[in-house]
Design brief:
By secondary structure, the protein is α/β, with parallel strands linked by helices. The protein contains seven helices and five strands; from the N terminus they run H-H-H-E-H-E-H-E-E-H-H-E. Strands 3-2-1-4-5 form a five-stranded parallel sheet. Bound molecules: S-adenosylmethionine. S-adenosylmethionine binds next to helix 1 and helix 6.
């Protein structure tokens, strides 16, 4: 199994949501346990910065898809980015992030399923970043359908010439 695969699977199996019996799924339990502490999958902003800065101007409207507790959004604000909408399926995580970043108006947090982002209008973002979230979807039920729904939604939301950054541990044929 590729590095990161096991952990990504844990989130995907229950998609970070509370179970129907009211108990917490692995993803929710982990976010509660960590109390909003930052964790970034695969790469930190420092490593991605050269690509981001070259492709995405600071005035861009960005969508961070399946944001988790990633520090990257905060780092991007420190770097001059003005508007980053962070979405995740985990409500407990989103509430923690809202509290943590209440004093950073450049960051917004919304609970949303990446497969249905109909709250956003078409061609309303300059850039979408997916880091690790495709890997979660690919480990879940109806993986190819979920992945296709996400990509179609990103395509709908990006302005013409918009930038889609996808970070995954999977090799190209598998993704
Ligand atoms: C592997 S973590 C990556 C987190 C973050 N992007 C990072 O780089 O650290 C995957 C994240 O995707 C979220 N997620 C899983 N399925 C989702 C879905 N259908 N819609 C939105 N978020 C989802 C999980 O709650 C989790 O926070």
């Amino acid at each position: 199994m590729a590095p990161g695969a096991a952990a990504a699977r844990c989130y995907a199996e229950e998609e970070g949501d509370t179970r129907s019996d009211g108990t917490r799924s692995y993803g929710e339990a982990r976010y509660v346990e960590e109390g909003g502490a930052s964790y970034g999958w695969y790469q930190r902003y420092a490593a991605l910065r050269p690509f981001v800065c070259r492709l995405v101007p600071p005035a861009s409207r960005l969508l961070m898809i399946g944001c988790g507790s990633v520090l990257m959004s905060e780092d991007m604000v420190a770097d001059g980015y003005m508007e980053i909408i962070n979405i995740d399926i985990s409500l407990v995580l989103i509430e923690m992030m809202r509290k943590k970043y209440f004093d950073l108006p450049q960051l917004q947090y919304m609970q949303m399923d990446v497969r249905d982002m109909s709250k956003f209008s078409e061609e309303s973002f300059d850039c979408a970043i997916v880091k690790g979230t495709l890997d979660s979807l690919m480990c879940g039920v109806e993986a190819p359908l979920s992945a296709a729904q996400m990509v179609l939604e990103v395509d709908r939301l990006l302005k013409p010439g918009g930038v889609f950054m996808l970070l995954t541990f999977g090799c190209k044929p598998a993704r």
